[in-house]
Amino acid sequence: MSKTAVLTSDGMLKALDALYQKSCEGIQNVSPPIDQFAYDYLSKTLDRKAAAKSMLKTQIAKCTTSGIATGFGGAITLPVTIPANIGSVLYVQMRMIACAAYMGGYDLHSDQVQTFVYACLAGVSVNEVVKKFGIQFGQKVAMAGIKKIPGKALTKINQRIGFRLVTKFGEKGLVNLGKMVPVVGAAINGGLDFAETKIIANRAYKMFLEGDFSDDEKMVKDTVLDAEIKEIKED
Fold first, then answer.
1. Integer Cα distance of 45 and 161 in angstroms
2. How far is Cα 108 from Cα 131, in angstroms, rounded to an integer?
3. Count of the separate structural domains present in the chain
């Protein structure tokens, strides 16, 4: 891999789209479709929330094992070049979120739900954007309310998601993939992925099992760049 290779925000979104499709459809001989994945937990209890908690706990542990970087081998192929260890972690995390959404009764084929899964993964708030389109998000948001979010709002949220994920690993919206590998590899073997995946799991449970988006501004805390907020306000 060239050390000058970079990943842009648009490239990150293309990678997320591919990961989302694989998360929902599964990977042959590696992971089952999301409905089967969820059924493994739902079949053990009539309580969806209990099933979701069990699934999330298992995936947190899975995402922090040292073998995840190579566990998927060449099964995860993406439209852009991303190191295998990063792609594997993102796949497990996104699949965990998508499964939580499925367990919560959300339609994974919905563009709105797909964007919410991305937002959960990236830690991006949707409130500020949707309010611009006259939609108020609070606790116990109805499914009908989510379906009313227009395509323009989804596009804006997705732009923030792509930018957020890229800047998470680099500066000025670009990722130097050659320099990422040893850093991320070390994180997978340490406690960083445990902490991050646990935060994502808690966020997924709150969003998709409790239907609570009221505090999702807290997802980004000091990680939302001023440039992102300025861009949305000026748009």
1. 34
2. 23
3. 1
The model's pTM? 0.79
Do the beta carbons of residue 119 and residue 161 sit within 8 Å? Answer: yes
Structural domain including 199 reads 6-234
Q: Which residues contact residue 74 at a Cβ distance below 8 angstroms, ignoring those fewer than 6 apart?
A: none
Would residue 1 count as lying in a domain? Answer: no
Cβ-proximal residues to 80 (8 Å cutoff; 6+ apart), any chain? 7, 11, 12, 14, 15
pLDDT for res 227? 40
Closest CA to 122 of 29, 55, 204: 204
**41-50, pLDDT tens digit by residue?**
999 999 999 9
- At 175, which helix (H) or strand (E)? strand 175-176
Residue 222 has a CB neighbour count (10 Å cut-off) of 5
Q: Is the pLDDT of residue 229 over 50?
A: no
